[in-house]
Design goal:
Radius of gyration of chain A: 24 Å
Distance between the termini of chain A: 67 Å
Number of strands of chain B: 4
Strand content of chain B: 5-15%
Strand order of the largest sheet of chain B: 2-1-3-4
Structural class of chain B: alpha+beta
Oligomer: heterodimer
Number of helices of chain A: 23
Shape of chain B: elongated
Structural class of chain A: alpha/beta
Distance between the termini of chain B: 33 Å
Order of helices and strands of chain B: HHHHHEHHEEEH
Number of helices of chain B: 8
Radius of gyration of chain B: 18 Å
């Protein structure tokens, strides 16, 4: 096994769309043809750098090939794998210097990240439980079940400062404590994998590349609060993630990590899967519960909180995929270690889905509190085409736009909300000077308006009214007083809506109004789109 | 609408079977509906009373659930389904124009099916392949970095 080398082909949704499935087959065939006995061909999940797909990595040396097509396979096999001469033309090229970078670990995009949640993504085969175990998987579960009481687990998570990565940032340890303290014959834990925010794809990546991490976290959560049943609620729009989670659950059952008397501890735990059916609002916890119960996925007023009365009327604790995937690391490496990462109030790391007008778009995991400029310029490689950064939209349709004049903004829960945005799901869409901010606000509103479930009046009517005004403005029919009306409706919707969708959906409008009021005024008064994006105003802009 | 030919196309016994498989639990309704759609391609409206009887719930409740979720269809769909992603990254990189081009070349609007039942055109909130925006999904295969030429190729391939 010493001279054994492995060629890993990425089989995430992104790379598969770059035909990496055929690359995998061709590599297997070519290696067999040349009779290279010391070369194994295997696959991984998402590396988070989908733009460079298909990605092929040769381990242990860590040579990283980008944009690999079937035609490149014979050369990789004969030149690199047989003759030891890596294929330079397929190396990643540094966008700033144009220099070829052969190794994974030397690429700026990866070098400047700190990967905890994504620790195994792109490094292990997600369909082989042994890979996960070899990487230290299920060690934390064993420790928890054999050496710790539920209270100790909760204390450890509390000490680590881990907060909900689903967006709201509620301290995970406290959430578990609520769940633990409720007396009931039956309790549930749910893994929320209904990643609905457009522009966010980290949950998809984790589930496709490292499904056992979330499963291990869910079992630990179940033990901590005293639940014997867990659900994974996953978006049906992610067919590959559904398949990999299903496989992982079956494997965990075979190994005895799920089922009766896990590790001989006397603790029983089962996981059920539930596929979503295409409703954004179902990421909200009470709507998610309604959806598992096969009802219309509409939120309900809280209290009672799900911790008291949730799924089937029983106490239920719901955590996001990334939160659960962090839990095994917190237990394994200890709360002190975890609490040493991040900013004062936001501990640990966060995963950001960097996309839009950016050179390196992909998944970026950094300690909480990392500055926007580091993420965009150092890791993201800056703005393509020599254009100027205008704004960064964080937190998906519930978040806001942060203008380029705040490059030192720390990415953590507190700082972002101070600027009128939110951490949210961690989506980060970069916009340059050709992006019209009024159009951006209109786009997000069109999304939230369509996804508003219609139960409460402020959200149902408010989103519709705001959308109509924004559409009018972008079509060149803006009127005096529109800005004031928008402010008025946005504040009402924010304050009076029932659930998180309504309470946060005015953020894109309010933040663009606050920071880019001049663009609104140009549209309304001068019938001009400064970014020259709004088509109805094209001619007049020249 | 009451032509027997249309009705016989849907195997009501199979629908009853699917309902039975799920044990008739009320909370399995979405799973039942998903299974029916996987097999038949859509949820035939005439199946609703059958499901209602088997699961002991009102037809209106089933109708309510079907109409609430974006992924349930009560009309047959085309042999090839083209789904254009409307996520943020796709939007910023021109996803809306893709939809327009497709609408023009297929002669249908979003949510519609061509009269020959070949293509259905729809949109999705986000498929999470933002790094390759703009995207579309055709026959469960994701196509990234789509441009007008690529659309032309895809439609040509689809006709072959």
């Amino acid at each position: 096994m010493q001279n054994q080398r492995t060629v890993f082909v990425c089989q995430g949704t992104g790379c598969l769309s770059s035909r990496s499935g055929a690359v995998y087959d061709a590599l297997t065939a070519e290696v067999a043809k040349l009779g290279l006995a010391d070369i194994a061909v295997d696959f991984t999940g998402c590396h988070g750098f989908c733009e460079k797909g298909g990605i092929v990595v040769v381990e242990p040396e860590g040579v990283f090939y980008t944009h690999v097509q079937v035609e490149d396979v014979p050369e990789i096999v004969s030149s690199h794998l047989r003759d030891g001469k890596p294929v330079e033309r397929l190396f990643y090229r540094d966008p700033a210097t144009g220099k070829a970078v052969p190794y994974y670990r030397e690429i700026n995009f990866y070098k400047k990240q700190q990967r905890i949640i994504l620790r195994n993504c792109g490094r292990i085969n997600p369909e082989k439980i042994d890979h996960y175990i070899d990487a230290g998987g299920y060690r934390a579960l064993k420790k928890v079940l054999l050496e710790m009481t539920p209270v100790q687990v909760i204390e450890e998570v509390k000490k680590s400062g881990l907060r909900g990565r689903g967006g709201a940032g509620f301290p995970t340890g406290r959430k578990w404590e609520f769940g633990y303290n409720v007396c009931s014959d039956k309790k549930y834990v749910i893994c929320n994998a209904d990643e609905g925010d457009p522009g966010a794809f980290m949950d998809r990546s984790v589930l496709e590349a490292d499904p056992h991490a979330a499963i291990e976290g869910l079992i630990i959560a179940g033990y901590a609060i005293g639940a014997n049943d867990g659900y994974v609620y996953i978006r049906a729009e992610y067919p590959l993630a559904v398949k990999r989670v299903y496989t992982a659950i079956q494997q965990a059952k075979e190994r005895g990590f799920l089922g009766r008397n896990i590790f001989g501890s006397g603790f029983d735990f089962e996981i059920h899967m539930k596929e979503g059916a295409g409703a954004f609002v179902c990421g909200e916890e009470t709507a998610l519960i309604a959806s598992i119960e096969s009802l219309r996925g509409m939120p309900r007023p809280r209290p009672p909180y799900p911790a008291q009365s949730g799924l089937f009327g029983k106490p239920t604790t719901i955590n996001n995929v990334k939160t659960l995937a962090s839990v095994p690391v917190v237990i394994d490496r200890g709360a002190e270690w975890y609490a040493g990462i991040g900013s004062e109030k936001s501990k640990g790391t966060t995963v950001i889905a960097l996309s839009g007008k950016i050179i390196n778009s992909g998944l970026v995991e950094v300690p909480m509190g990392t500055s926007l400029s580091k993420i965009i310029f150092d890791i993201g490689g800056g703005i393509p085409g020599g254009r100027r950064l205008k704004a960064v939209q964080t937190g998906g349709p519930s978040g806001g736009c942060i203008p380029a004049r705040f490059p030192d903004t720390q990415v953590d829960y507190e700082t972002l909300s101070l600027l009128g945005s939110i951490m949210g799901s961690g989506g980060m869409v970069v916009m340059d000077d050709t992006t019209c901010m009024v159009e951006v606000a209109r786009y997000f509103l069109s999304f939230t308006q369509a996804e508003s479930c219609g139960k409460c009046v402020p959200c149902r009517l408010g989103t519709k009214q705001m959308l109509e005004i924004l559409t009018r403005i972008t079509r060149g029919r803006g009127q005096e007083g529109d800005i004031e009306t928008l402010y008025d409706i946005a504040r009402t919707v924010k304050e009076c809506s029932l659930c998180g969708l309504g309470q946060t959906c005015p953020n894109p409008v309010l933040s663009t109004l606050n920071y880019f009021r001049d663009e609104y005024e140009a549209h309304i008064k001068k019938k001009l789109c400064p970014a020259n994006q709004c088509r109805a105003l094209h001619r007049k802009a020249k | 609408m009451n032509k027997p030919a249309v009705k016989s196309a849907i195997d009501m016994e199979r629908i009853k079977e699917i309902v039975m498989e799920c044990g008739g639990h009320k909370w399995a309704l979405i799973t039942v509906v998903q299974k029916i759609q996987n097999e038949f391609g859509y949820i035939p409206p005439e199946a609703i009373p059958v499901i209602a009887k088997g699961m002991k719930i009102f037809p209106s409740q089933i109708q309510g659930v079907i109409s609430f979720y974006a992924q349930f269809y009560t009309k047959p769909r085309g042999r090839q389904v083209i789904t254009v992603c409307r996520g943020t990254a796709c939007h910023v990189r021109g996803g809306e124009s893709l939809l327009e081009i497709l609408e023009n070349s297929l002669g249908i609007k979003e949510g519609e099916t061509t009269p020959d039942m070949e293509y259905t055109l729809e949109t999705v909130a986000c498929i999470g392949v933002c790094a390759l925006a703009p995207n579309l999904v055709m026959d469960n295969q994701v196509h990234g970095k789509v441009d007008p030429q690529k659309i032309e190729q895809l439609l040509k391939k689809g006709e072959a």
